[in-house]
Amino acid sequence: MQWNFNIQQEIAPNTALLVGYTGSRGVHLPYFVNDFDMVLPSATPQGYIWPTSGTRLNPSAGQIAGTLWNSDSIYHGLAVQLTRQLTKGLQAGLSYSFGKSIDSGSAAAFQDNFANSAQRLFFDPKQGRGPSDFDIRHNFTFNYIWEVPALRAGPTAVRWLTNGWQWGGILHVASGEPFTPQIGGDPLGMASASSFDRPDVVSSSSCGGSPVNSGNPLHYIRTECLAFPSSKRMGNAGRNVLTGPGIVNLDTSLFKNIGPTEKFHAQFRAEFFNVLNHTNFASPVNNTNIFGANGAPISSAGVITSTTTTSRQIQFGLKLIW
């Protein structure tokens, strides 16, 4: 189910403002399970606890995959858009969205869509309820385009070189994607092809309720704020409780239209991607394991090894339009 409502109003000459709300709700959504054949835990007041030695659901079978229709989702979002014709030939616009998407599993019916996907217990959707894998909380975009004023007099060669130029750009600023701290191996004894576990979040004033150090790509996760659970218990760290680095990216372009007619003309294009050469780090999705199965800390936990955008890229082109 999807719904939206928006109001658009001219708040000043050549200035339009749009404010909108968007929502959605999904029930009985598919959740693909790589392996149902696991050792089941016991539900206790301390959480799910696995037996010291247990038997899989079907010891005579190997991996059993399938799809359940027990997931749900909900989204609420605010959108604001402002556009303005500043002067003749110059216009700009900005948009901002603030939203939150929550579900009990973002995986598709046949495969995981996102590198930051985390597993949940297939029999308990609430155990996996949290921010969606694609939950980007804040999104801001600013765009502009300027038709450089043409010279009406002067030598023909000078006018040919200086007239017909357009300069545009798009600035994109967004918050990061969520991800989940995990424990490697099979510390709980699930005996499944898709075993997993999560650590405990340490409750202390020094950790500030968020085990993340967003300023250090070599130690992005504050591992001192996470602990190895005891007694074969799944840790209390929820799915997607951490948020990765955001993004700041500016693309700009410079065009020159060559030719006086609308039926046929050429366009010279110079395009600059990430013109500020700003490093946008990705989430440490390859290093989310905080501990090994025996409880030993993993030295590479929280290390960021990739970026979400390239370095500054410049390309030139010639386009024929008719």
- The total count of helices amounts to 1
Give the % helix: under 10%
Radius of gyration: 26 Å
The total beta strand count reads 18
* Terminus-to-terminus distance: 44 Å
What structural class do helix, strand and pairing data support?
mainly beta
Largest sheet: 10 strands, antiparallel
- The geometry reads as elongated
Poorly predicted runs of 5 or more residues: none
Mean pLDDT, as a whole number?
91
Q: Determine the strand fraction and express it as a percent band.
A: 35-45%
- Helix-strand sequence: EEEEEEEEHEEEEEEEEEE
Commentary on this structure:
The protein is an all-beta fold and 322 residues long. The protein has one helix at residues 156-162; strands spanning 2-12, 15-33, 42-44, 47-49, 66-87, 90-103, 130-131, 138-147, 165-174, 178-179, 182-183, 200-201, 226-227, 242-243, 247-258, 265-273, 289-291, 313-321. The strands form five sheets. Strands 1, 2, 5, 6, 7, 8, 9, 15, 16 and 18 form a ten-stranded antiparallel beta sheet that branches. The mean pLDDT is 91.
